[in-house]
Amino acid sequence: MRFDLIDLGLFRHIVEAGSITHGAARANLALAAASKRMRNLEVSLNIQLFERARQGITLTPAGRTLLAHAKTMLEQEDRLRGDLHAYSGELAGQVRLLANNHALAAFLPSALAAFQKQHPDLHVEVNERLADEVVEQVGDGTADLGLLPANTDTGGLETYPFRSDRLVLVVPTGHVLARRKGMGFGDALDQPFVGLDARNAFQQFLSDKALAQGKSVNLKIQVRSHDAVCRLVGGGAGVGVVPEAVAAPWVKVGQLKAIVLADAWALRELVICLRRLANLTPEARLLAEYLGGGSAADKPADAALEPGQQGLLI
């Protein structure tokens, strides 16, 4: 019995994406080609790997067994490629990184841009996940590294400091609250809010904090990103809560005012999580060390409010 690593990689993508259509897109394959590969794999093994339905796919017991082995084999392939590239003095391969919305919006774009300039042959695949999904997928080997809040239960995963950032209330420059230097989140809840989709983990977090005070977030407009929140708030559509690093460029050009939230939960520590540092591929370790080093390239030098910045070279 022989296995094609391309088929195993496609199989893993399909499982992670929840459908053949989205899995094929992740693997950069046409849907027809991906479907044919999966049918041929099932025929060659003489087993059914998926229960196919209109809502997506569900793994059969045989599919779950194959997934566990496929992850191991693909991880070993990554490790082999990295080890052999080390003899050439170059690193080239793929690192799978998951991040929650906060880390993805506030810090990763500039950090990864600087990293890729230094290591152009390395491919970093980044996907947004909820914190508990980050823990699960790093733990089972689906991803190499994860970024999430420090107060997340990470089980047996190793964690290292990444960044500190503060959540701030952003308001239009002429707003009645614009002169405030600081305030509690509850004191702003009578204002109309611009926020993320109500199902978004970050928005759910804010809703929970409001509920703890016996109030609710008056969410008038829902958008997909923190930048979009800043854009609409700057236009006078309401107020919003975003990471300070995201608000900084808007504050600098005078389109917004950022008000420090006095609530203890507004100061958020982010960490890197991984299974075992010693077991990472050379590529994944290189990225982990870069992110853990707190590169100055990623620090928003024009931040209106200076957040505590933590970084530790792993």
UniProtKB/TrEMBL annotation:
GO molecular function terms listed in the Swiss-Prot or TrEMBL record: DNA binding; DNA-binding transcription factor activity
PROSITE patterns per record: HTH_LYSR
Occurrences of domain HTH lysR-type (ranges): 3-60
Coiled-coil stretches noted in the UniProt entry, renumbered to this chain: none
InterPro entries according to UniProt: HTH-type_LysR_regulators (IPR050950), LysR_HTH_N (IPR000847), LysR_subst-bd (IPR005119), WH-like_DNA-bd_sf (IPR036388), WH_DNA-bd_sf (IPR036390)
GO cellular component: cytosol
Keywords: DNA-binding, Transcription, Transcription regulation
Superkingdom: Bacteria
One Pfam assignment: LysR_substrate
Family as reported in the entry's similarity comment: Belongs to the LysR transcriptional regulatory family.
Protein name from the UniProt record: DNA-binding transcriptional LysR family regulator
Classification of source organism: Bacteria, Pseudomonadati, Pseudomonadota, Betaproteobacteria, Burkholderiales
